[in-house]
Amino acid sequence: MTDPAAALAPFAPVDRGVDEPDPARAPLRAAGPVVRVEAPAGGSVWIVTDEAVARAALVDPRITKDPAWAPPAWDPPVAGLEPPAAAVPSLTTLDGPAHAALRQAHAPLFTARRLRAHYGFMTELAIGMLSAVAGEDPVDLAADFTARYPVAVLLELLGIPADRVDDALGACRAMFTGPEGPGRAMATFADLAAAGLTDGRSGFAAELRDRVPAEITRDQLHYLLFGLIFPGQITTDPALGFVLADVLDDGRADADLDDLVRETLRHHPPAPLTLWRFTVEEVELAGVRLPPRAPVLVDILGTGTDPHRETGPDLTFGAGPHYCLGAQLASLELRAVAEVVRTEFPYARLAVPRAALRQVSHGGIGGSRLAALPVVLGRRKT
């Protein structure tokens, strides 16, 4: 069904308090399990608001991630589309056996066991970066730290020199800076990938080069590495701000850190909506008929915060064959920083009342992040 009041609501910019619910989610849930609204790029989009229907949609082979199936009238930059899978193969656009083969090449690098071996580095990095800005004066951790930390972790894992962090962070930010920004950013990402693939370097980049299917070209490999750096930064950055706000909340001082990270991600998922999917034929979801080439989104934030949802695994990292490859890495990064703040900075505190924290979203399918996170990182009681 279509709810006129919900038109464009999930894509509109929003400025709200850190604990205020998103105003679009309750109306979307009330409108039904599958709701038709207007897409930013024009025409209709169907948003799945029911978790059971969402899980079915996420494994339905008739619903593809390949942007080649987007409505013909869509402008890819306006819609935020990647190149079609036939042009540039990637984990986020391929489906079926081709996706499975590419995922099989990536998967051994991102197992929980493999990543836990780097947990010590993650904690030491957090200690060093936070110690550099610690003191009696407030510091805005959302201004630089939450963005820089995940980039530094990713470059370490990939085997890209640590002195390229500024380049990588600049490229991530340039992806959102006007029509010329993405082109400049992609050139930088390709250069970063090449640095990680230099003969003699070790790391995930070199390992991935040796694991991908033989038909993957060097330029395509560079794009695969971009697909690890950019998404890994833009999703972990906002999540880290919310985790820090929660770990510094007096009411959660004794919370188990794994539970805190998991619950924070459920209430503030880095991606409130899935990436675009499209029907390859007519599909019926929860009694709603979707035509071929219909854009489909799953409301991750809405399903996770539904007051009537049952306890259990949520959709923060998706489900099915496209379950987020970086889920373990993101969770470990968030936990490492939370642990460092709690153990190394026992007197750290928010410099403003929690209720004064604001979260902002610029619209589209992207998520919210804290506008500012002023913190006093003192190591002694003041």
Spatial strand order of the main sheet: 2-3-9-6-4
CATH topology: Cytochrome p450
Give the beta-strand count. 13
The whole-number mean of residue pLDDT values reads 93
Question: Can you tag this structure with a few keywords?
Answer:
382 residues; alpha+beta; Cytochrome p450; five-stranded mixed sheet; three-stranded antiparallel sheet; 11% strand; globular
Structural topology:
Blueprint: E1 14-17, H1 25-31, E2 34-38, E3 44-48, H2 51-57, E4 63-64, H3 76-79, H4 96-106, H5 112-116, H6 119-131, E5 139-140, H7 145-158, H8 165-174, H9 181-196, H10 204-211, H11 218-247, H12 257-267, E6 277-279, E7 283-285, E8 288-290, E9 295-298, H13 300-304, H14 327-344, E10 349-350, E11 358-361, E12 369-370, E13 374-376
Parallel strand pairs: 3-9
Antiparallel strand pairs: 1-11, 2-3, 4-6, 5-13, 6-9, 7-8, 10-13, 11-12
Helix pairs in contact: 6-7, 6-14, 7-8, 7-11, 8-9, 8-11, 9-11, 11-12, 11-14, 12-14
Notes on the protein architecture:
The protein is an alpha+beta fold. It has a single domain (4-376), classed as Cytochrome P450 (Cytochrome p450), CATH 1.10.630.10. It has helices spanning 25-31, 51-57, 76-79, 96-106, 112-116, 119-131, 145-158, 165-174, 181-196, 204-211, 218-247, 257-267, 300-304, 327-344; strands at 14-17, 34-38, 44-48, 63-64, 139-140, 277-279, 283-285, 288-290, 295-298, 349-350, 358-361, 369-370, 374-376. The protein has a five-stranded mixed β-sheet. α12 (257-267) crosses α14. It is globular, with a radius of gyration of 21 Å. Mean pLDDT is 93; it is low at 1-7. Residues 1-22 are annotated as: Disordered. This is Cytochrome P450. Belongs to the cytochrome P450 family.
